[in-house]
Amino acid sequence: LSNVSKNALIEPRRLKGFRDYPPELMVVRRAVMDVVRRSAALAGFAEIATPALEYAQTLLGQGEETDKQVYRFKDHGDRDVAMRFDLTVPFARFVGENQGTLVFPFKKLQMGEVWRGENTQKGRYREFVQCDLDIIGVDSASADIEILGVFGRVLADVLGSYGAGAFTTAVGNRVVLSALIKRLLPGVGGAPEGGAGGETGVLIALDKLAKIGADKVKALLAAIPGASEAGAAALLQALMTKDAKGSTDLAKIKATLAGDEPALAEVERLERVVAVATNVLGKAAGRLVVDLTIARGLAYYTGIVFETTLDALPGFGSVCSGGRYNDLASRFSSRELPGVGGSIGLDRLVAALEEAGKVPAARATAKVMVAVATDDSVDYAFALATTLRESGVPTDVGLGQKLGNQVKYADRMGYAYVLTVGTSERDAKTYALKEMKTGETKADQPAAGVAASLKALLQ
Amino acid sequence: LSNVSKNALIEPRRLKGFRDYPPELMVVRRAVMDVVRRSAALAGFAEIATPALEYAQTLLGQGEETDKQVYRFKDHGDRDVAMRFDLTVPFARFVGENQGTLVFPFKKLQMGEVWRGENTQKGRYREFVQCDLDIIGVDSASADIEILGVFGRVLADVLGSYGAGAFTTAVGNRVVLSALIKRLLPGVGGAPEGGAGGETGVLIALDKLAKIGADKVKALLAAIPGASEAGAAALLQALMTKDAKGSTDLAKIKATLAGDEPALAEVERLERVVAVATNVLGKAAGRLVVDLTIARGLAYYTGIVFETTLDALPGFGSVCSGGRYNDLASRFSSRELPGVGGSIGLDRLVAALEEAGKVPAARATAKVMVAVATDDSVDYAFALATTLRESGVPTDVGLGQKLGNQVKYADRMGYAYVLTVGTSERDAKTYALKEMKTGETKADQPAAGVAASLKALLQ
Hints:
Two copies of one chain form a homodimer.
Chain A (H helix, E strand, L loop, with lengths): L22 H20 L3 E2 L5 E3 H4 L4 H6 L2 E3 L5 E4 L4 H11 L7 E10 L11 E10 L4 H21 L5 E7 H11 L13 H9 L2 H14 L6 H12 L9 H7 L4 H21 L5 E4 L13 E7 L9 E6 L13 E7 H10 L12 E5 L5 H13 L4 E3 L5 H11 L3 E5 L1 H6 L1 E6 L5 E6 L3 H9 L1
Parallel strand pairs in A: 1-5, 7-8, 12-13, 12-14
Antiparallel strand pairs in A: 2-4, 3-4, 5-6, 6-11, 7-9, 9-10, 10-11, 14-15, 15-16
Helix pairs in contact in A: 1-5, 5-11, 6-9, 7-8, 8-9
């Protein structure tokens, strides 16, 4: 490794695809993360964290495309290591490693950065934060209800705190979908190794519904080896026929699946899960609909699958998604650990709030500043600031600049009030109060009631 | 890149030097991070974040030892990239890149993981979280006071919330120390290129005081080329003579530095900063003492330097440290940006709380669980859990296991109360309440007042 000269100036620049979060972007991210944690904790989900780096062997093997995007290198001990690509695989490793001490069902929240060396596009970054909630160790309708409930409540709390309005969670089921494909497109068979045909091809085509529309999806389906045009049309009609509530018409689905008892049991479970989750969440937490067109890609899911979109931003895509899987830690343990869970993309959610115009432009945590007119009033200024801070009023204080520059700074920071103190205020135990919006100033305010006064003004 | 087989079992293992945070470790970390953020926000420090990865050129050049520990590799675009080693250098790059839009003085909090490929020792990890607070763009006594004040308050709030007792912040000054070295060890001169002698050698020797004691440090000092035994003794005596408050005796220091006006001005500033900061913080926030033996290593610092230790754990070392520096972004910009700041090692602080026996063993966020005796009471159980959650009572719910297993789970999770519901409770709108500690159960509790009842019990 060559040494870099300490004297030559280096151009300060971020890596392509990475971004900084200055205060005005960070305030909303932290607020959202706080709400996620608080809402999850209320439902008994405990937070965990795992390292950024893992053995490459732990992370790789998730598919060729994914493997290519993993940041991978040799560490100082010549170990083949990699930066985590998502939170799911490290979590599987964590559960595999700690299964002896964890208490199941294990309800966990994990929030953290993940890294993907993918081609950058507008709004896509190579580092982003995921918020994952999962319930491991139990396969039950109750766990499905609990996971839909916690995501609904988390999103309701986040969106509610920004006045960002209603959202809809569409819930499908992969067992039911698979049974429908077998019945209506009997010729396509299972997923061929590495190919795009078979059932996998059907799922991939269905995932494009929102993007390209039913006609084009029908053509894609009909082109799959073993499929027919009539079968493709029948499948789409079965999936897309809605009942009065806007859900896939499950009465028709049951008729179509007559005789397939395992599939019919899954339809019953799906109906029940959505009904109870709707009751659990109540009106505030958005709408739940059954939507059997939700396919969610590849081999992973084995029960419910779900995606949440904001009603005001139908084109924005999902801000939350997940589903049930049979065996979280199958690569690490022979013990079967069924689970249900999902992921909120923090940055997508924040971007949605921004696109909906719901993020206030705040760069500062304080609303009030104590400005210092004379050097002999520094002690007094700090005492006043301390009183405000200890009363819970976020307060800035002048730090040795000239008074005029302090007031300019307060203006640029967007502070609502400036309390100026000099020798006479110090001696009289008062302050001069300036309302920044109007420019109005009131002299000789008594310091004794400063916290109560400012709290009242800021309400 | 070779593909990993999906079928062979992989041993689930972390990389050496990295650790997971299961709920029982994560609860306290998050709580501490929350208190840091809340306390910092009250004083007007705004949070920022920068990426984990930077151009290697940005991060390297901080010294041979440091450079060796940086995780460095080629990314997908063949760029020479590295994982951040601390938060200071990325922050300098951030300020250099954004100096046109930032408002100065810029008061920032940054919390995040840093990575160092160093040899692992007990209690040292290759990934750990730093919490940095800095004020950039102003060189003033007020900024020094503000930084000592915010760290004091943050630590007081963190330690106070765990009942972890008193702490002491020792404040030195590098200008004063340097002037004392010039006067009392005139022969040693400045820092020789890459060597251990000169003023740098003196600082390194002084940093060992707590570890090896005054006699051995005196011997190290006397051995520095150009130093004398008498000079070494005089320097140590000047630095270590205490006044009645336990601070370095500044009256004696002033006498020693007679005639050196710039150094005397720094002594005055140091006295004033510590006096005002003491007033600002009040009794709750720990003791501030002047301690001119605080050297803090190498070339970086140009004014106050400080280190905080817990009074109950004098041997544990510092949990917080920092100082004033002249030019944060000197490698990135010709604009001079003076600053003052420091860093709390989150993991060291948590370790200190643990060592002091102050961290409660909590693995769960909930305290209450609704257990479900019959399948027909699932709706009712979720309704009861929802009522509790929406009233702010963190509540878990049975997820489809047999009732006996649900109660075992509640016991292992350490829940205080289990509310059991079955068909008859559902019909009567009641629940059976079991206090887990005593095993006592009360039947037929009315659901109507459930939130108020549980809140009262948990108080």
